[in-house]
Amino acid sequence: MKRSKPVSLFIGRFQPFHRGHLSALRWIAARSSKVIVAIGSADKGYEPENPFTSSERIRMVRGQLKDAGLLKKCLIAQVTDVNDNNRWVQHVDANVPKYDMAYSNNALVKRLMRKAGREVGAIPFFKRAVYDATKIRGRMRQGREWQARVPRKVLFVLKRMKAEERVRGL
Question: 0.70 exceeded by the pTM?
């Protein structure tokens, strides 16, 4: 018997998890029986582009999913970098449960998934100019306002770990 809704994969670095990610997850969850939230670059942390460790990002995501009432519908997995586009999808598949549909707006992710025969869906952007992790990290570095760009549970985690200080120091 076929499910009416697919098991979906949403992979991202979530450096940090922001309101755009939350909007995307809500959109995906409404179309899915289950959502696998894969923390990409799970082996990275304390780097300018990847300042937060996978365990810190899991705390951010899990806390926000719980607060949004999405935790029961989501499963969090970790995917390390493999640094080989030819093996990337196979590596993802080896590290997450079986899924029917992958969602991403990243051109490389979509291309690699399609090349491997996976069904790929696009996610509507939610205020992309505002909710962008690179810009949020930049605002942290510059001492500019960034707090309103992340959901409240994520903000709580980031403040407790003194994220702004860390990002400035990298």
Answer: yes
